[in-house]
Amino acid sequence: MDKISSGLAMIIEEKLIARKPVREPFNWNGSIVDITRLRNSRFGRVDTLDLEKNEVIRLTPHGFVVEFLGTPKSGKSNQIEMFINRLKQDEEFGDLEIEIFKPNTEAKMLFSKQEDPELFHQDIVNSQERTLGRLYGTPKNESVLHRETPIAVFDRGVIDSLPWTEYRFRRRDISQDIKESLVSRLQISQGRVHLAIGVNINSEEAYSRALEKEGEGYIMNPRTLQQLYTYFMILDYLNDNERKKVMESNPFYEDILKEIKTKEAGEPGYYDFLRLNVPYLGIECGSNLSGEEKKTDKNNNHNRVYERIRGALRARLQEYTDEE
Q1: Residue 154 is inside which H or E element, if any?
Q2: Which helix (H) or strand (E) holds 97?
Q3: For residue 44, what are the CA distances in angstroms to 89, 308, 309?
Q4: Nearest to 64 by CA among 98, 33, 22
Q5: Whether residue 13 has pLDDT greater than 80
Q6: 268-293 pLDDT, tens digit each
Q7: Do 140 and 55 form a contact (C-beta atoms < 8 A)?
């Protein structure tokens, strides 16, 4: 075993000793998982370390970071896959390398959400911040092997954790002080993201999808999914004017608008922490549609996501060119 892999094993062993895992080490949904392969998964790396090549991944000076976030079972991974496939065929950007990061995965694999929700949530945030920070960082030792990527895609990251922090606070999993500390950190970290894409689906459809695949669980239950949906919809409302208009004109969102007005009336500015300093696009899957309507809606969402990212990517590259 090389030094990096050996050091990684020691870190994981220390974590397992400090906190009891939800399952046997490296057992993921009934299958034994090689931690090295997890760190090199095509579905998203857990950090910036490529153990297969013994390289650290860094963002180029003109690099672009896009984060996909949203409610469970909304189709984020599908949106990411569609975006990447289209970009590869793009005449202007098709030759650009892309790295996908999924920093939540390791904590979700190793530790139980139920056993210590506060510590679990902080582990998630720490992992997101650490991965994003290292992507921008410069190794202290210049002899460290590294490679640069111009595009980094996050499947859940520091912006996603803002609604989740509110959910944890409302469940009394974390204290007011912890919430404020995490929010402060997350607001600083979001400055390293160039575009955020919110992919959401209503709680009933999310629950239906969960039952089809893995059944009801700690998160996958009607009450929890509705709470999360509310906070992600408030994020939509505050950061995407088009979504705001849709929500204000559709009775379906009446309870969410009432939540905003009630909280803001009692505690002015309560939801200010969900106002982003990052360009944001929100989409909601047409779960109440069927047949051709559903297919059209799905294609429209793919097109909106792709064109928005493509435009932001071009602007980022142009900004770097102008600076030179």
Answers
A1: strand 146-155
A2: none
A3: 21, 22, 18
A4: 98
A5: no
A6: 999 999 999 999 999 998 655 566 66
A7: no
Residue 95 CA, distance from chain mean position: 25
Q: Which two tokens stand for residue 218?
A: 């700690």
Provide the percentage of residues in the chain whose pLDDT is more than 70. 78
CB-based contact 238:201 (threshold 8 Å): no
How far CA 21 is from CA of 32, 36, 64, 322, in Å, comes to 14, 19, 35, 50
First to last CA, the chain: 44
DSSP string, 27-75: EETTEE--HHHHTT-TT-BSSSEETTTTEEEEEEEEEEEEEEE-STTS-
Q: How far apart are CA 179 and CA 122, in angstroms?
A: 10
Those residues whose C-beta lies under 8 Å from the C-beta of residue 184, and which sit 6 or more positions away, are none
Cα pseudo-dihedral 253, 257, 258, 259, rounded to 10:
110
Comparing 25 with 296, which gets the higher pLDDT? Answer: 296
Paired tokens of 70: 């949203």
Helix (H, G, I), strand (E, B) or coil at 315: helix
Does residue 15 register a pLDDT over 60?
Answer: no
pLDDT interval class at 214 (50, 70, 90)? confident
Whole-model pTM: value is 0.85
Give the β-pairing of 146-155 and 55-69. parallel
Residue type for position 310: R
Residue 289 vs residues 207, 252, 283: alpha-carbon distances, Å:
17, 15, 15
Is it the case that residue 3 has pLDDT exceeding 70?
no
Identify the pLDDT of residue 323. 58
**Which residues make beta-bridge pairs with 99?**
152
Residue-level pLDDT at 137: 84
Structure tokens, 178: 């912890």
